[in-house]
């Protein structure tokens, strides 16, 4: 009897964190014991955040975290671990994904990973790529996100002042759209420090392939009324 690794993936805002929290809720209700892990939640906190408004505390996975050690520490505290919920799994290193696979194979733990596949340049994140290579099950997350033109949106464009960016740090973690009231963008990013003005204009927008290629963000290029994700 071994565990399984399942990777649920999709564009930004398709319901991945919500699904993660739903699965955790239903497994716990059945008496199974799990750990929630996350790397770079949009909130900047060690939690899993759903845009619907539900959050759950989680253990932050750092760049050098050995996830096997996290499970061993739980065992040492006397906690049985039946499953892991890992959100924002695209940010894991390939080595951390391999550690999750080892936990499934050797410790009979079911591992549920959730994340986006490609970055703002439409390139696979290393963690997502390793999950596509190793997972037992791959599941596109069910809620369709549409491009402004109505076609299915698959590409997570990074947009600054209506322009689709093609260069920059792969990791740019943001928790909400700019907050004009506080003057603060509420942004957390692990890239080089950016000015608040620079942060205030950067957001993500899911586009279809054609409009991602063409860099067209829709008639209201200012982003007002557009689905602003982060
Ligand atoms: N006020 C709302 N009422 C109903 N559904 C909502 C609401 N706000 C967000 N959602 C749903 O939540 C989804 C985003 O959920 P979330 O788990 O945060 O996505 P992801 O983790 O993939 O970015 C949206 O696609 C939408 O379907
Ligand atoms: C495309 C892209 C995204 N990110 C960040 C932005 C968000 O914080 C997360 C995705 O979160 P969601 O729950 O799927 O909305 O990833 C990034 O750092 N780099 C990128 O290229």
Account of the protein in words:
A hairpin with a 2-residue loop joins β9 and β10 (163-164). The chain has two domains: 5-140, P-loop containing nucleotide triphosphate hydrolases (Rossmann fold, 3-Layer(aba) Sandwich), CATH 3.40.50.300; 155-214, no CATH class. α3 (94-107) runs parallel beside α4 (126-134). Helix content is 26%, strand content 20%. A six-stranded parallel sheet has the order 5-2-6-7-1-8, sandwiched between helices. A three-stranded antiparallel sheet has the order 10-9-11. The protein is elongated and about 55 Å long. The model is unreliable at 178-197 and 222-227 (pLDDT under 50). It is of the alpha/beta class and 230 residues long. Adenosine-5'-diphosphate is lined by residues 12-18, 50-52, 143.
Topology overview:
Elements: E1 5-9, H1 16-29, E2 34-38, E3 47-49, E4 55-57, E5 59-60, H2 67-76, E6 83-87, H3 94-107, E7 110-115, H4 126-134, E8 137-140, E9 155-160, E10 163-164, H5 196-201, E11 202-207, H6 209-214
Parallel strand pairs: 1-7, 1-8, 2-5, 2-6, 6-7
Antiparallel strand pairs: 3-4, 9-10, 9-11
Helix pairs in contact: 3-4
Adenosine-5'-diphosphate (ADP) binds at residues 12-18, 50-52, 143.
